[in-house]
Specification:
Blueprint: H1 3-8, E1 9-11, H2 16-26, E2 31-35, E3 41-46, H3 47-55, E4 75-76, H4 85-90, E5 95-99, E6 105-110, E7 121-126, E8 146-147, E9 150-151, H5 152-162, E10 167-172, H6 176-183, E11 192-197, H7 203-208, E12 218-223, E13 226-228, H8 232-242, E14 246-256, E15 260-264, E16 270-275, E17 278-291, H9 306-315, E18 320-324, E19 329-331, H10 335-344
Parallel strand pairs: 1-2, 4-5, 7-10, 7-12, 10-11, 14-18
Antiparallel strand pairs: 2-3, 5-6, 8-9, 12-17, 13-19, 14-17, 15-16
Length: 350
């Protein structure tokens, strides 16, 4: 049972007094979701519902079921990826049950605590040695280097949590125990963390196949040494709207030529002249969303990178969509990057 369910669900067999105590404890998000003993959704309950019941003549001896709103808004868990979270927030729906097709509650969507909900399982690649950052990485794996007051990897995990991510698989190798001892099973953060350890290098997607997280139809894969405030909801929704098979987050890179540039054909005849042009290129930002069904194309226990899959999709006429990151992004690969991250973290909102 998730922490959100424990916080917000009250059973129909509990008393009105139990409901008042639980509502008082909730404070900033005082909404209860009423369920039967099988966790099937029955209704919702607020302070206002209880007050209206007392005005009608109900008392503490009446069952909770007499007070509830019997037809609350809910979301089917297999339709979560279609939900417009911003629209729900505008309509002041802040605590919403997520149910399966039997109306059994599987989670509670709490928009007072979350930025959004992105229905993906996440795989984070955290096995590299960080050679270019030696000697900082002699006894500390690169993802665990502190940027500000916490490790790079924790910045990434905490931002994913803001977007409702529940299941994270971390691929570890170099100084793996440091990472595992710090995050453990993820329960302290209200999530589930699984670790996979490669016996031999398997590449990005080769490692993904070792993970057992399979709650969703989509997998987000990302490098662990990134510092970014990417909009994960925008990334996911752009992917869904595009109808693509895979999405890659990108960063723009501009090249300014300080001279006039001539464009010539094969006969050396000039077609055009551009004075000091600026060219924009898009670079791979190390964050991807993949349809789970595509993992069947990845060979078992063989080295296979995410770029191998991208090449295959392009060659086979499949859809690969780019999502430009409009916010902050930094790949911490060198000492100057690490130094920059220490300054940027003071001013960038994550």
């Amino acid at each position: 049972m998730t922490q959100n369910i424990q916080r917000h669900v009250i059973y129909n067999t509990q008393s009105v007094r139990d409901a008042l105590i639980k509502l008082n404890d909730l404070k900033v998000d005082p909404i209860l979701i009423v369920a039967d003993e099988e966790l099937r959704l029955l209704g919702s309950l607020t302070d206002g519902d209880l007050r209206r019941g007392f005005i009608k003549g109900l008392d503490f001896n009446n069952p909770i079921i007499d007070y509830i709103q019997p037809d609350p808004l809910y979301i089917y868990n297999d339709e979560l990826h279609l939900t417009d979270i911003n629209d729900l927030r505008k309509r002041n729906f802040l605590v919403i049950p997520i149910v399966d097709r039997e109306h059994k509650i599987t989670d509670i969507l709490n928009l007072t605590r979350l930025q959004s909900v992105v229905p993906v399982d996440v795989v984070i690649m955290a096995g590299g040695k960080g050679q270019r950052l030696m000697p900082l990485t002699k006894d500390t794996p690169k993802p665990m280097l502190l940027v500000g007051d916490k490790p790079i990897l924790e910045h990434n995990i905490d931002r994913l949590i803001k977007y409702g991510v529940k299941n994270i698989c971390i691929s570890v190798n170099y100084l793996a125990q440091n990472i595992m001892d710090y995050f453990k099973d993820g329960s302290s953060k209200g999530i589930s963390i699984e670790y996979v350890h490669e016996d031999k290098p398997l590449g990005t997607l080769g490692s993904v196949k070792l993970c057992n997280q399979n709650a969703h139809d989509y997998i987000m894969v990302m490098n662990s040494d990134l510092l970014t405030n990417i909009d994960y909801e925008g990334f996911f929704q752009a992917f869904i709207r595009s109808g693509a098979d895979m999405a890659v987050a990108t960063t723009s890179y501009q090249v300014e030529v300080p001279y006039g540039v001539l464009e010539v054909d094969t006969g050396n005849f000039v077609n055009s002249l551009k004075e000091k042009p600026r060219y924009t290129y898009y670079s791979n930002a190390g964050i991807y969303i993949v349809k789970r069904e595509l993992m069947g194309l990845v060979p078992d226990k063989e080295f296979y990178n995410v770029t191998d899959l991208m090449d295959m999709l392009i060659k086979n006429g499949k859809k690969l969509v780019s999502f430009p990151i409009l916010g902050y992004w930094l790949d911490i690969g060198k000492h100057e990057d690490f130094k920059k991250a220490q300054e940027d973290i003071k001013y960038i909102s994550f």
